[in-house]
Write a structure and sequence with these properties.
The chain is mainly α. The protein contains ten helices and no strands.
């Protein structure tokens, strides 16, 4: 006897819009709650972000503010972005709770671990940029400065630079999730992903060139982990498809002679 088809939760357009508004409001309130302490310690946050550069600057080096308002607006903007990044798991949970009723059980089975992996990988990418990439990049820039040139970076330009790198590396670390999604949804076969490794490597370097500052050091530091994560995504996708095939084989009734 074949199992009955799985029924999905249905609702009117108005009910969906009301639920979406409610969940977006909860996500916004969560960001505001996290923003309050971040705004209070905005200067401390900026000092934390500036620490990798300050370690590489000479004794008389410093950051400067070329605008009167930037001493307030720059840490304030950083506090908001930090609050958004910190509250992102809850924001994604509200988005997931909105779309989950429209998914089948099999889709939920794959979506939950992928969502959790995406969050963890994003934070890993941010941490990798701060603790690994920043010291290398700043040391490279400072030591390649022409003789007689003293680096005095504007705080707004510096913050825009580091936020670009932090978010870029956070997004770049989502490569395994993208690979697993392509394979589990049946859009691409694993054999195809393994046969186009050379093209993928070129595309990764092009993406790294677009996301990072125009220097070979930053591009290479991003491209190498992205490619390794691509290979890791293939490995995880292979494991998942093998488990899926084993479950399908176990569920099929044995053939009767």
């Amino acid at each position: 006897m074949s199992p009955e088809p799985e029924a999905l939760v249905e609702g009117t357009l108005i009910s969906h819009l009301l639920e979406l508004r409610s969940r977006l409001m909860r996500a916004f309130v969560a960001v505001v709650i996290v923003f309050a302490p971040c705004a209070y310690y905005a200067n401390t946050l900026f000092e934390f972000i500036a620490r990798p550069l300050m370690k590489e600057l000479p004794a008389n080096g410093s950051l400067v503010a070329t605008s009167i308002t930037s001493t307030f607006t720059t840490p304030f903007k950083l506090a908001f972005i930090a609050a958004l990044i910190i509250a992102m798991p809850y924001v994604l949970y509200e988005i997931w709770a909105f779309i989950a009723p429209g998914l089948y059980r099999r889709e939920k089975y794959f979506a939950k671990p992928l969502l959790l992996s995406a969050i963890v990988l994003f934070y890993c990418g941010v941490a990798f940029a701060y603790f690994v990439v920043f010291p290398i990049v700043f040391q490279f820039f400072i030591h390649t400065a022409p003789h007689g040139v003293q680096l005095m970076t504007d705080i707004t330009s510096y913050m825009d630079f580091v936020l670009l790198l932090l978010i870029s590396f956070g997004v770049a670390f989502e490569v395994p999730v993208a690979v697993v999604l392509l394979v589990t949804t049946g859009l691409v076969k694993i054999e195809k992903l393994t046969s186009i490794r050379g093209y993928v490597l070129i595309i990764i370097f092009v993406i790294a060139a677009m996301l990072t500052p125009p220097d070979a050091v930053s591009q290479t530091i991003m491209a190498v982990p992205m490619y390794l994560l691509y290979e890791g995504g293939i490995i995880f996708a292979r494991i998942l498809t093998r488990q899926q095939a084993n479950k399908k084989a176990a569920a099929e009734p044995p053939e009767t002679p």
